[in-house]
Design a protein that fits this description.
Elements lengths: L2 E4 L2 E9 L5 E5 L10 H7 L4 E5 L16 H15 L4 E6 L1 H12 L3 E7 L13 H8 L7 H9 L7 H4 L1 H14 L3 H13 L13 E6 L8 H9 L3 E6 L6 H4 L1 H15 L1
Helix pairs in contact: 1-11, 2-3, 5-7
InterPro entries: AB_hydrolase, AB_hydrolase_1, AB_hydrolase_fold
Organism: Halorubrum xinjiangense
Protein name: Pimeloyl-ACP methyl ester carboxylesterase
Length: about 270
């Protein structure tokens, strides 16, 4: 896999798809490795070149001491575009990755469109993660083994019954998370970046088309944040997924991927 070093931090990224097609940059959420985008990448590779970096602190990228900032991680993403010689990119981010995408669009005129999933603009008007959910996703039982720990931490991000409906997929996700997710140091440093993020007063400066997708039953970043993004982004369209959890783009991957492909077909 290619890698680029920015300010002494190596950022590893995967490249898939058609090198002659428009470039799509996929940015993952807090703690998650680039495995998170495997389904969307598969849906795009026939027509697009797809870049999937591991955020600093995650997977094959370096994990320097934190705290990190979202602006820092956006600069890492820009360095990936530089390294790969990208002149324009359609940027898709989920959760923390959506925050990085917003910051990148504000800082880099190569961003041609935004797709923002289950994310927030931050700031005083944003609806935060409820305290009980925050405690759950950052504190597994001490006696949990590594697999049990991942399943426990992920519970608020999925719908009730998901583990029972797709047990084989859940086992594979646990495998991927064990192999490619953030280190404990990286996860804590990324969490500090999310907590400090605030683009709310700057979103009016983003002139590119934006698609905002959010599950109505998101317990991690409540759906009210989608409305806030829609109000403040000049060229945003919003689609809500009824009953969708935070990881709705995994649970409803075919429908989500079709919607993103349609949007990219209109703007790319």
């Amino acid at each position: 896999m290619p890698s680029v070093t920015r300010d002494g931090v190596a950022i590893d990224y995967a490249v898939d798809g058609d090198p002659d097609g428009p470039t799509v940059l996929l940015l993952e959420g807090l703690g998650y490795g680039r495995w998170m985008w495997r389904w969307l990448a598969e849906a795009l590779v026939d027509d697009y070149e797809v870049l999937r970096p591991d955020n600093r602190g995650t997977g094959d990228s370096d994990a320097p001491e934190g705290p990190y900032t979202v602006a820092e991680m956006a600069a890492d993403a820009a360095a990936v575009l530089d390294d790969h010689g990208v002149d324009a990119a359609h940027v898709c981010g989920a959760s923390m990755g959506g925050m990085i995408a917003q910051e990148l669009a504000l800082a880099d005129d190569r961003v041609a469109s935004l797709t923002l999933l289950c994310t927030s603009p931050g700031g005083d008007d944003a609806t935060p993660t409820p305290e009980e959910v925050q405690e759950h996703i950052f504190s597994a039982p001490e006696d949990a083994d590594p697999r049990e720990r991942i399943r426990y931490l992920m519970e608020p991000a999925v719908s009730d019954g998901f583990y029972e409906r797709e047990p084989e997929l859940v086992d594979r996700i646990v495998d991927w998370r064990l192999a490619g997710d953030a280190t404990p140091t990286g996860r804590e440093a990324q969490a500090a970046a999310v907590a400090a993020f605030d683009a709310s007063d700057r979103l009016g400066d983003i002139s590119v088309p934006a698609l905002v997708l959010h599950g109505t039953a998101d317990r991690v970043l409540p759906v009210e944040n989608a409305d806030l993004l829609a109000d403040r982004l000049p060229h945003a369209e919003v689609e809500l997924f009824d009953g969708g959890p935070h990881l709705f783009f995994i649970e409803e991957r075919e429908r989500v991927n079709d919607r993103i492909r349609t949007f990219l077909g209109e703007v790319a």
